Fold this sequence. Notes:
By secondary structure, the chain is mainly beta. It is 14% helix and 38% strand.
Amino acid sequence: MRLLFAAVILLTGCTGTPNSVQPVSPFELESYLGEWHEIARLDHRFERGLSEVTAHYSMRNDGGVRVLNRGYHQSRDEWREAEGRAYFAGDNTTGKLKVSFFGPFFASYNIAKLEPDYSMALVVGHNLNYAWILARSPNPSADDCLRYQQKAAAIGVDTGALIWLSDCLASANNE
């Protein structure tokens, strides 16, 4: 089975932070652990065609984080999974991690915005061509989705190119 996030290979050595992004601080890893639903993302080959995408974060024995990404590929009628590992890329009170799904190759995981109750997050990679809006619920409020879309735009993400897996903004536009 092809790995969900095989493109991480292309991100070798890409563990920086975009100039417009200040990773969140303070950050508590324990509060971030658990299941997140992908609400929106920029298109990349490693996720193309996937819906119902989730990421589950749990602790590893070595102090790192186990990352299990899962998504449904409707046209192939199959679930795809990729397991990786993440570690802090600096101090452990800042939402800046490095993640790997393939051997020694790591990519940036910068948390650019996070709700105080850890219910929603905006994550970007080493540049703004990699962006995800995540939430604990698969259907966050329209107001929350709009705030996260606006934050993404403010830091330079091409929000017109976002693929929305939730219809939260559609309901906002119909109100």
